[in-house]
Fold Glyoxalase.
Amino acid sequence: MFDHLGYSVGDFEKSSSFYDAALAPFGIKRLSGYEFPGGQGIGYGADQPQFWINSGAALRDHVHLAFAAKNRAEVDAFYAAAIAAGGKDNGAPGLRPQYHPNYYAAFVYDPDGHNVEAVCHAPE
């Protein structure tokens, strides 16, 4: 659980287009934007910004983000939208019983190589 999370991305336009599309199946959209000397940022959320990307240098190490899906259809929609937006496959939608019997997830790499996951823990 977190209040918010943010990091810098290497190509702000490419990453913002990716996250606009990939997060839409969850009802997550751009809620806030700001500029700072030499850069800009975007806050994404449903009701309040909880996920932020900022222009700048991409992180040197990769991050793993897991977004909660309400159902398996949202996981499928996330994967399709993320791939269509330029994400790279890191695990198609499906059950991951090694985590627990109902762990349904999909994984994609974003434009900076971060592992972005959508996961649903519901039985169906």
The two ends are 23 Å apart (CA to CA). The first helix runs from residue 12 to 23.
